[in-house]
Amino acid sequence: MTGETDPIKKDTIMAADNIRKDIEPGETVNSHKIPSPILLSGTKIMTGSGLMVVICVGKYSCSGKIKAKL
Question: Which end of the chain has the least Cβ crowding within 10 Å, N or C?
């Protein structure tokens, strides 16, 4: 959403949950330390493969909500 060009690792929800379990209470965590399973339209896959489930499109998507506010 911010136009970042740096690759960001994505992973499954289960993998993210396993990483969260290893974080100590009160530990500061970089937002990219826990891989998000969320992809936005237009995401480019640089390596690997995957299966995705579409959960919203059009005016209900993140970019659709932003466009509606403009």
Answer: C
Sign of CA dihedral 54, 58, 62, 65: negative
What global pTM score does this model have?
0.47
Q: Domain extents for the chain?
A: 13-69
Task: Identify residue 37 by its one-letter amino acid code.
Answer: P
Instruction: Give the separation between CA 70 and CA 67, rounded to whole angstroms.
Output: 5
How far apart, in whole angstroms, are the C-alpha atoms of residue 28 and residue 32? Answer: 12
**Residues in Cβ contact with 50 at an 8 Å cutoff, skipping those fewer than 6 apart:** 10
User: What is the residue-averaged pLDDT of the chain?
Assistant: 77
